[in-house]
Specification:
The protein has 338 residues and is mostly beta strands. It is built from two helices and 20 strands. It is 4% helix and 61% strand.
Length: 338
């Protein structure tokens, strides 16, 4: 530390034997960071207004390297620009409820820019590329991500993931993210292309190739614990199924529309069109106490065409006894938990 110049010059070369995540959580106001230890090196060089930095950190085999600059104006309006790499990130290995169910091995190069780091109205952008990675049971060949925070608004410009099981593209935004007491509104769009259904269904016999667009709009608030409670939320979802292959049946098209008002799930439309027929359903479900009512119509234009998918769904059924002709069913299913 040199003080004989107009601005003090700082040079720090720190070896971290063990840094408590709980201490970092206190500093970052993230109480969930309450366990774990980080080891590594931190190098800082410059003045209080402009500090170059280089980080090499590790926790349980997960590594972070980053290099950039930290700026401030008399210790206000703190800004950060850094480029770095993450290797072998395991979200389930962090003491956060939101990531506990997401084991993985994520590898990425990233760019991070933050303005007004010390203030709630901070701005930030995080963007980068994913290399060969894994999340839960899904392998990711490559991908990109780009998101921004502006005050209490999160904008997800794009997450794009490519793998052997298909392609996933997500875009969206959330308003009101700064305070748990505020109402949060979210809008998310997901596009799934060439999804290999054997990756998500329990039997390879149910395999196929699916193309879906999903739009979700929701509004509500998080509990003070940060946990999700569906009673505090309302929302709408629309799903569009484009030409796909399911159960050896081609040219499947369909749509689903549903609404949730905090206590009742309303199925406003479920329609499916296939080469062997069509189905149309509507209904609603309440969770507490559990009750449901589904009304609909199923039309099978030619019964013999359902033999291939029927063999996969229920191989014990004697399909050789399926008659010629067509079948039309109108009805309702009503039930409740006693």
């Amino acid at each position: 530390l040199q003080q004989d110049k107009p601005e003090p010059e700082i040079t720090l070369d720190i070896n971290i034997a063990a840094l408590s995540l709980a201490e970092m959580g206190n500093w970052l106001s993230v109480p969930e960071l309450n366990q774990g230890r980080v080891i590594g090196k931190v190098y800082l060089n410059g003045t209080p207004k402009r500090l170059d930095h280089r980080l090499e950190l590790e926790m349980n085999g997960q590594t972070l390297t980053a290099e950039g600059v930290l700026t401030s104006d008399n210790y206000h309006d703190i800004g950060l620009v850094t480029n770095g790499t993450i290797r072998h990130l395991n979200p389930a290995g962090w003491p956060l409820d939101a990531t506990s169910g997401w084991p993985g091995d994520l590898n990425s190069d990233f760019y991070l820019r933050v303005e007004k780091l010390e203030k709630p109205e901070r701005k930030a952008r995080l963007a980068g590329q994913l290399m060969a990675s894994k999340l839960t049971d899904y392998k990711i060949d490559n991908g990109t991500f780009d998101l921004e925070i502006d005050n209490d608004k999160l904008v997800l410009s794009e997450i794009l993931l490519n793998g052997q099981t298909g392609q996933l593209r997500i875009q969206g935004q959330a308003q009101g993210i700064n305070s748990l007491s505020k109402s949060v509104t979210t809008k998310v769009r997901a596009e799934i292309r060439n999804l290999d259904t054997t990756a998500i269904l329990p039997s390879s016999q149910l395999g196929g190739m699916v193309n879906i667009d999903l739009n979700v709009n929701a509004a509500g608030k998080l509990a003070t614990s940060g946990k999700f409670d569906p009673i505090d939320w309302t929302g709408k979802a629309d799903l569009q199924l484009f030409p796909s292959v399911l159960l050896d049946t081609e040219n499947n098209e369909g749509k689903l529309a549903a609404e949730w008002n905090g206590s009742i799930l309303q199925l406003t439309a479920l329609e499916l069109q296939t080469e062997w027929g069509r189905a149309s359903l509507k209904g609603q479900t309440t969770l507490q106490p559990l009750s449901y009512q589904i009304n609909g119509e199923i039309v099978i234009a030619e019964l013999k065409k359902i033999i291939p998918p029927l063999k996969k769904i229920a191989p014990q059924v004697p399909v050789d006894q399926v008659p010629n002709g067509y079948l039309k069913i109108n009805g309702a299913v009503i039930g409740k938990n006693k």
